[in-house]
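Service request form, structural biology core

Requester: graduate student, group of Dr. S.
Request type: structure prediction, single chain
Budget code: on file
Notes: please return the result as structure tokens.

Sequence provided:
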Amino acid sequence: MAFAGVVLLTMGTASAQQPSAHPSLDTVNNGAEATEGENGKFEDSAGVPTYSLQEDGTADFYTWRGYKKYTANCMQCHGPDGQGSSFAPNLTDSLKQMDYYAFTGVVVGGQQNVWNTSGNSVMPAWGEDKNVMCYLDAIYVYLRARTDGVVGKGEPKRPPINEAARAAENECLGF
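Core staff response, request fulfilled:
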């Protein structure tokens, strides 16, 4: 069912806004329909983490948490809202050409001189940093929503706390 730029997903899933004309590679390949999985994390048809927004624009917990963790860990180089800076590329553009698996590979292993080939661009490897790795899917989901144009600049509308997701985060962090 569609109306006013919103698609309502049936079978108990939350609703999500329509992606832009230039969505993320995963949305192009796997579609925008979200199915709720373990701990309230949404997945697309290929099992890749994705977002789910309610009719009023409230984000799912992982999209909102991804914004928080992106802001804490990634914004310093990649700029506000994933839009890039003089230090690092625009991630909302990068995800149009890079799928979830390539994205996680770069975050985990880092890369050098790919974005700026002049010899001074370094994406550090974050694979040993729990403050990034325990939230990697949430960061990806937030950036996917930004790339797809369904989440605007700034903090997405906050959902209720997802206690199962929070417990999983704490377990990952060793609490």
